[in-house]
Amino acid sequence: MKDHIINYIQGQEDEIIRLSTELISANTTNPPGNEYLGADVIKRYFSTHGIRYDTFEKAPGRTNIIGYIGKGSPALLVACHLDVVPAGDGWETDPFKAVVKDGRIFGRGANDNKGQMAPMLALAKFLKENESKLNGTLLLVGAADEEKGSSLGLEYLLNECGISADYAIIPDVANNMRIIDVGEKGALFLNITSYGKQSHGSTPEKGVNAIWNMIELLNQVKELKRKCTTHELFTPPTLNLGTISGGAAHNIVPAKCEAKLDIRYLPGETEKEILDNIYKIIASIENHNPTAKFDITIDTQLPPTQIPADNPLVSLISKHTETILGTKPIPLGFSGVTVCKQLIEKGIMAVGFGPGDEDQAHIANESIEIKELLDFGKIMGLVIFDILK
Q1: 3-state class of 159 per DSSP?
Q2: Cβ neighbourhood burial of 190 (10 Å; 0-12, 13-18, 19+)
């Protein structure tokens, strides 16, 4: 069966390019999403090859599609997301018309995350043809809304649609199949507002400058000592000042300033501990400067997740990656956020693994190597047959 899978996927290069091209051509920029356009491509493919599927929508047009191959337990879920970020500037070609050049596919979503769906669809056809050899179920998911938090996508499927599995592989971490995501940092996105009092710029003493007060707060938050600074699987915690805005003109004392912070933290630290420390800074500033006033709202809070690095998925992916590529991927903690986080929180053993260069997501002229897509399809075929044997 191993040689059969490898030879089959190798012969699917044209089909994988065609499927990638169709998916990229479906403009599913989020917002607004319109993932139904990508789901329609998958529907046609599933229907053509007799693969049973369901669709789920929490909001009109925000379609999730799941194809089912095999039956019973164990169940393995593989999810690629259908939405993409806005194209932005700097493209040399139409971002929603795939271009094949120099062994790569170019277009928005080629790397993140439509390219990965193409070999999974080709593999689904092979698995359907060999369904009698499977003992268990593959759920192949085209998910909505990943780029904006998955409340209309995988989170919705898990919380409201009764979707579950024993294992999950999420092909959304790139790094050329050199790593396996076995954990993810916590993510805390904060909106901070500083309130002041407007006055004429020539008499600043009559007002309260919300921006100066914000600068004092941000400088102290920047120097805040973190409870956990090292971990064997993760890079250190981070703090990013994403935006700061306030004021109307040179000669007006600003009455309001807003800042957005992205805080990534390690297992062993909690969102509450981070917030408590920031509130202590605020209390200190307001104590020596009674005119200062701040407000914090939480935009996103996702706790750290981690599964054992020696779990069965890691073992199988490592074994078959070595077969195809000659190297073993390294289990690591991931600084970004994937839907592995929601799956792990539901008790599903989930890892991230997939093709693509780590610097391609969200950039102009996004692309992925065709050979990597083929190799990914081969590895996933071998892994799936081992899990569902």
Answers
A1: helix
A2: buried
Structure tokens at 289: 């400067």
C-alpha–C-alpha distance, residues 180 and 308, integer Å:
12
The pTM of the full predicted model, rounded to 2 decimals, is 0.91
Domains belonging to the chain, first-starting first, are: 2-184+304-387 (3.40.630.10), 187-302 (3.30.70.360)
DSSP 300: E
Residue 30, amino acid:
N
Total residue length of the chain: 389
pLDDT per residue of the chain (389 residues) written in tens, 0 to 9? 889 999 999 999 999 999 999 999 999 999 999 999 999 999 999 999 999 999 999 999 999 999 999 999 999 999 999 999 999 999 999 999 999 999 999 999 999 999 999 999 999 999 999 999 999 999 999 999 999 989 999 999 999 999 999 999 999 999 999 999 999 999 999 999 999 999 999 999 999 999 999 999 999 999 999 999 999 999 999 999 999 999 999 999 999 999 999 999 999 999 999 999 999 999 999 999 999 999 999 999 999 999 999 999 999 999 999 999 999 999 999 999 999 999 999 999 999 999 999 999 999 999 999 999 999 999 999 999 999 99
Q: Which residues contact 200 (CB under 8 A, 6 or more apart)?
A: 206, 207, 251, 252, 253
CA distance 190 to 213: 17
Q: Which residues of 214-249 are buried (b: 16+ CB within 10 A; e: fewer)?
A: bebbbebbeeeebebeebebbeebebeeeebebbee
